[in-house]
Design goal:
The protein is mainly alpha-helical. The chain is about 65% helix and about 0% strand. The chain is globular and about 45 Å long.
Length: about 190
């Protein structure tokens, strides 16, 4: 990895990795951020084995792309985006591989095989979900991602965002309602 002129004074581990101390710096980054990455992968997949595999893939991508970190956002924000993108790419590849066409050329609706009544529960299109999340107002989106994706508690979110826990709960509730409306509108339009 080439030396990077980005100021990362607050994170000696990241600085070491960017400044060319590849192995020990990267190992430290792995130890420091493994749990967060694994947690995101597990929440998004709901599968322990897939989460472990995806966590490893994220760190391979991190190793390859660390030079592209420009420091415009916090490293954890950049790593979070890298992780989410890796998981979404995994879902896209998997859906393309498992896509089946019926005899009349139609693609059947996907259903969750673990549901009691599979015909009644189509899987939410993850791309539609990501687009709906992007449409949320910034406050709703931030609280939704921190709580439902990254797993922070309301008290932790309140400290991070310098607001009350009640505000965090309210923003999350409103975000979920708006997401539900957006997804219902998309399913009706499709």
């Amino acid at each position: 990895m080439a030396s990077n002129a980005i100021s990362v004074e607050g994170d000696a581990t990241l600085r070491a990795a960017l400044d060319g101390d590849e192995m020990s710096g990267f190992e430290d980054l792995y130890r420091k951020h493994y749990r967060r990455v694994y947690s995101i992968c597990l929440r998004m997949t709901g599968n322990l084995a897939e989460a472990e595999d995806l966590t490893q893939e994220v760190f391979i991508q991190l190793y390859r792309k660390l030079d592209s970190f420009r420091g415009e956002a916090a490293f954890t924000t950049w790593l979070h985006r890298l992780t989410v993108n890796q998981v979404l790419m995994h879902f896209r590849k998997r859906s393309v591989r498992s896509e089946q066409i019926t005899e009349d050329g139609e693609i059947p609706d996907s259903v969750d095989p673990d549901t009691v009544n599979p015909e009644a529960m189509p899987i939410v299109d993850r791309i539609a979900l990501e687009n709906a999340i992007a449409e949320l107002p910034p406050g709703y989106r931030t609280v939704f991602v921190l709580h439902d994706v990254e797993g922070y508690e309301h008290e932790e979110i309140a400290k991070l965002l310098e607001c009350s826990a009640g505000t965090s709960k309210s923003q999350l509730h409103k975000a979920r309602l708006k997401l539900r409306r957006l997804l219902q509108q998309r399913s009706k339009a499709a």
